[in-house]
């Protein structure tokens, strides 16, 4: 039986423009009201996630910064498996490289981040990967479709899911995960049942156990409806 749902945010319960799908919000509330824990798992910052949890109506359990941080409930201890210093050092190398080509990198909410670095998608992520490789830097480049992130190896939403499951007294096999992007791959693999929404790229769909017909929030709602009876109602 499934006991918790772990869902990505951007591209999974929002549309391409980051507008939240209101039916997806209702669906999350239906789960929460049935006693099923819903974990929001995102590349976004903790403060963003806290506001989102409050307004959607979850208990504040989050995975943020692509697994760079996670926390059980609003008052739980914030765990920070990520390493911001390493990511920032790699970012400086990228910044210099792209400045040399006349392209400025735009950091996203750097002052609110504990673990990863996020910046605008005005460069080719594969070119950034090549620079990281050439300089032998210990970070990986993630393109979420909404931002590019730098993250230390071993840190992922999937690794955070496994740690969080332990804190919640659950097994990852009792969790369903839903996502849309390459920062969700490890999470879809770690969960007992992984779902990709239709807008997910092929590599993400391949990591999932099932792919929805609908895209974005419509796909999210479709997946929860289809598997609702596999959740243990308390
Ligand atoms: O922060 C991002 O780049 C994307 O966020 P997401 O993980 O909720 O899709
Ligand atoms: Mg996403």
What does this structure look like?
This protein has 234 residues and is of the alpha/beta class. The chain has two domains: 4-80 and 155-230, Rossmann fold (3-Layer(aba) Sandwich); 84-151, Hypothetical Protein Ta0175, Chain: A, domain 2 (Alpha-Beta Complex), CATH 3.90.1070. The chain is 36% helix and 16% strand. It contains eight helices and ten strands. Strand 2 (37-41), helix 2 (46-56) and strand 3 form a beta-alpha-beta unit. Helix 1 packs parallel to helix 8 (216-227). Residues 8-11, 42-44, 118, 144, 146-147, 181, 183 line the site of 2-phosphoglycolic acid.
Query: Which residue ranges are poorly predicted, with pLDDT under 50 across at least 5 consecutive positions?
Result: none
What letter string, H or E per element, gives the SSE order? EHEHEEHEHEEHEHEHEH
The total beta strand count reads 10
Gyration radius, to the nearest Å?
Answer: 17 Å
Number of domains: 2
Structural class label: alpha/beta
Helix proportion range: 25-40%
Specify the biggest β-sheet: 7 strands, mixed
Q: Which topology of the largest domain does CATH recognise?
A: Rossmann fold
Spatial order of the strands forming the largest sheet: 4-3-2-1-8-9-10
Shape: globular
Average pLDDT taken over every residue: 98
SS field, number of helical segments: 8
CATH superfamily of the largest domain: HAD superfamily/HAD-like
Pfam families: Hydrolase_3 (PF08282)
Keywords: Carbohydrate metabolism, Hydrolase, Magnesium, Metal-binding
Family: Belongs to the archaeal SPP-like hydrolase family.
Function: Catalyzes the dephosphorylation of 2-phosphoglycolate.
